[in-house]
Every structure is written in C-alpha cells, then in structure tokens.
C-alpha cells in the first residue's frame, strides 16, 4: 500500500502539479496529500478520482503497468482539463515540445520543456523544424518568443491558399506605415474602449482625411466595426477594434522571413516536395 503514495508523488512531480491542485480536485486537504506521499494511504473511495486526475489506471497507482495509459487522447485531454485554467496553455506547449522531439525519435524521459528552458539563457531564442513530405512543424523555443505550428500535408494546398484571396492588395495596405503602426497600436490598446478617427489622427500626427482612410481600410478587413451613438443631441460615429490573433502569427512568421532562424535545437530537412503545389 505504501507504493500508492510514492506513485502519487512521482506522477505529480512528473507533471509539474502542486499538492494543492491534486487536493482541490480530489476534495481533501493539502496536508492529506502530503501524508499520502510520505507513507500514508488514501481512502479506497478516493482512488478512482486520483487515477482520473493523473489519467492513469488504478493499477498504476499500485505500481502495476505504470506506463499503461489506455486511450491516449482521453489521457492527454484529462491531464490538461484537470489543471487550473491559467496553467493549461503552458501544459499544452510543454506537450507540443514532447511531440516535436518525438518526430526526431526522442523520448519524453529526456526531460520536460521546463527542464530544457532552465538551461537556455533568458535572452536566447532557439527554434525547431521538422520538414518532411508528410507535413511541417515550426517551433519557437525560448524564454523570449514561444510558439508551435504544425501543418499536415494537404492534397492541394495551393487551391486552399489562393482561392478568392487578393494577397497583393492586402500586403499593399499592410505596407502603408500608417496602417501598420495603427494596427500595432490597436492590438496593444484596451479593446473595450471605443475610439474615433480623432484618436488615430492625434496619436500618429495624421490629417483627418488620412485617419478616415486608415479606419476605412481596417473596417474593410473586419478589424473595426462602427456604432452610432447619440451624444449632446448629436449622432456620433465611434469604432471598436476587433483584435486578430492572426496578426500576431503574421508578425511571428514575417520575422522569420526577414531574419531567418539560425540557432536550432532540432532541425530535420527531409522534404522533397515543393511547399506549394
């Protein structure tokens, strides 16, 4: 029975979970979890809930088939869902790191992403790439800029990318420094605050006509929407900004094109196909 406490401690530490988190899920005190891990035994009726928390079988808690996780999708989903909301994306990224390494034949027992992060200088940026005829991955690994992108191979990606899309016009608008600077400004601003063209004109020293033009282009791409309100017996038009996570992604990958990565943790170039076909 002492094995149970040791397995709980091992599973908890492997996943970077605090005793408080396990205690809250199971419905016991933190002191109870500490007692288990130091030789105590949880009540029998708690075993299914503890096993669910770690996405393992009850047998695993007794040290039997500890690597048997059953349905992998369920195990991974429960492992993430059982964490507090503020820790879930961090866990997802850590799992992405494990998946990226698996493409290079590396096992997760090499250490967690958190372990790897500790040996990287806080100002250092590293990358990983897996480029094959089955798809590609792009990963930023650092204390500065972290991201993970996986693109499985498509039968005809050129059709999906270019169907009814005017890239030239979009990039022409984006190359206008005023439009670009306003986009960056609005993504930094509190999106609950409405604004008028006057805010744009004032902050970027633009003429009123230019400010109206910029806002009109943003409205065309559904980045802002206008609302008419009555103020001092007059109808005023105000705008609200709709931030786009795609814009952040665009900056990340544009940066890679402008300043190509050189410092790779992992890199595999096995691709023989063109990227667009």
Tell me what the structure shows.
The protein has 277 residues and is α+β, with helices and mostly antiparallel strands. It is 49% helix and 16% strand. The chain is built from 14 helices and 6 strands. The chain has helices spanning 2-14, 19-26, 30-37, 47-54, 58-61, 72-81, 85-102, 113-118, 157-162, 167-174, 177-188, 197-204, 208-220, 245-258, and strands at 125-132, 135-142, 147-152, 224-231, 234-241, 264-269. A 4-stranded mixed beta sheet has the order 3-2-1-6, covered by helices on one side. A two-stranded antiparallel sheet has the order 4-5. Strand 2 and strand 3 (147-152) form a beta hairpin. Helix 1 crosses helix 3. The N and C termini lie far apart (60 Å). The model has no long low-confidence stretch (mean pLDDT 87).
List keywords for this structure.
alpha+beta; 277 residues; 49% helix; 14 helices; extended; 3 domains; 434 Repressor (Amino-terminal Domain); 16% strand; two-stranded antiparallel ribbon; Arc Repressor Mutant, subunit A; 4-stranded mixed β-sheet
